[in-house]
């Protein structure tokens, strides 16, 4: 069976999109969300976040909600 990787730009939610991602994507999502909760709250005054390699920006809303000005790259 051959799997093709989906276009990363289409990934607006950090969810597995093909079988090889079933383990690692939920693990990484959980670690990122835990890191935001532990280290990014509360957002300092005029806080900014640079999301490098963000694709469809799946964490933009989470960062904006806690007070960060979001920039993608």
In words, what does this structure look like?
The protein is of the alpha+beta class and 73 residues long. It is 30% helix and 11% strand. It is built from two helices and two strands, in the order H-E-H-E. The chain has helices at 24-39, 60-65; strands at residues 48-51, 69-72. A two-stranded parallel sheet has the order 1-2. Strand 1 (48-51), helix 2 (60-65) and strand 2 form a beta-alpha-beta unit. The longest helix has 16 residues, at 24-39. The radius of gyration is 14 Å and the shape is elongated. The mean pLDDT is 87.
Topology overview:
Layout: H1 24-39, E1 48-51, H2 60-65, E2 69-72
Parallel strand pairs: 1-2
Sum this structure up briefly.
By secondary structure, the chain is an alpha+beta fold.
Distance between the termini: 34 Å
Largest sheet, in brief, is: 2 strands, parallel
Count of DSSP helices?
Answer: 2
Rg is 14 Å
Helix content range of the residues, please? 25-40%
Decide which structural class fits the backbone.
alpha+beta
Order of helices and strands: HEHE
What is the mean pLDDT?
87
Oligomer: single chain
